Amino acid sequence: MNLHEQLGALEVGVDQLIQAVVAPQAQNIPETSAANATPEAPAQQAGAAVQAASTPASAPAVASENTPAVATDAAAAAPEETHAEVATQAAAAATAAQEEKPTLSIGRPAQNEITMTISGKTVSLRPEQVGQLIEELSNARASMTPEPPMGVPPGWRFVSTRNPVMAVQKQSNGDRLLIMRHTGHGWVPFSLSPDNVIQLYALLTQR
């Protein structure tokens, strides 16, 4: 059926519906009431009947069935995409953290304080803690290779201690344990064989 045929069938159906509604009312209502009644009620009923006849009965059902499904699918897809983005960002941050090597920086905000910063975390050390750190590092460095150079390196910066306090102990094998107090390194021990003692004496007394 084309559009004109559908409209013609619809008009016939509306006329039949109006007759079916108006005819019983005309038989049951007295003549005085029918004469005074306004023609708006049948017109409104006819308009409602036309709207009901022109609206497909399956439209509300389709809308009620499809709309929640689409909303549910969208709501389910959104968290999955969010979790995927968060996981990707976390993996990228972990990779960047592994590739970035930690750096050490040392500061001296005050005469009796030293700060050490590693990867953004700062630790403040007091003089006693600095001495303990020097001792631990010295003990560890003694077992590492390569050893310190045998000659005095050019441009070496150092702090000398004038007239240091010394202590000497005799070992069972004839060696002498010479311990000298340095103002920066603390107590520094040296083990000297009898030949080294003679050499040290010659070096200290030569002119």
Structural topology:
Layout: H1 3-28, H2 31-36, H3 40-54, H4 58-99, E1 104-110, E2 113-118, E3 121-125, H5 127-141, E4 166-170, E5 176-182, E6 186-192, H6 194-205
Helix pairs in contact: 1-3
Protein name: Phage tail protein
Biased composition (Low complexity): 37-97
Region (Disordered): 31-110
Can you summarize the main beta sheet?
3 strands, antiparallel
Query: What percent strand?
Result: 15-25%
**Major beta sheet, strand line-up:** 1-2-3
Q: What is the succession of H and E elements? A: HHHHEEEHEEEH
Query: How far from one another are the termini?
Result: 131 Å
Radius of gyration: 52 Å
Count every beta strand, where a strand is a DSSP E run of 2 or more residues. Answer: 6
- Mean of pLDDT: 76
Structural class, from helix and strand content? alpha+beta
Stretches where pLDDT is under 50 for at least 5 consecutive residues are 32-43, 52-71
Q: What global shape is seen?
A: rod-shaped
Number of helices: 6
Helix content: 55-70%
Region (Disordered): 31-110
Biased composition (Low complexity): 37-97
Protein name: Phage tail protein
Organism: Paraburkholderia phenazinium
Q: Would you give an account of this structure?
A:
This protein is α+β, with helices and mostly antiparallel strands and 207 residues long. Among the domains are: 11-31 and 42-51, no CATH class; 102-147, no CATH class; 162-207, no CATH class. 56% of the residues lie in helices and 18% in strands. It contains six helices and six strands, in the order H-H-H-H-E-E-E-H-E-E-E-H. The chain has helices at 3-28, 31-36, 40-54, 58-99, 127-141, 194-205, and strands at 104-110, 113-118, 121-125, 166-170, 176-182, 186-192. The protein has a three-stranded antiparallel β-sheet with strand order 1-2-3. Helix 1 packs antiparallel against helix 3 (40-54). The protein starts with a helix and ends with a helix.
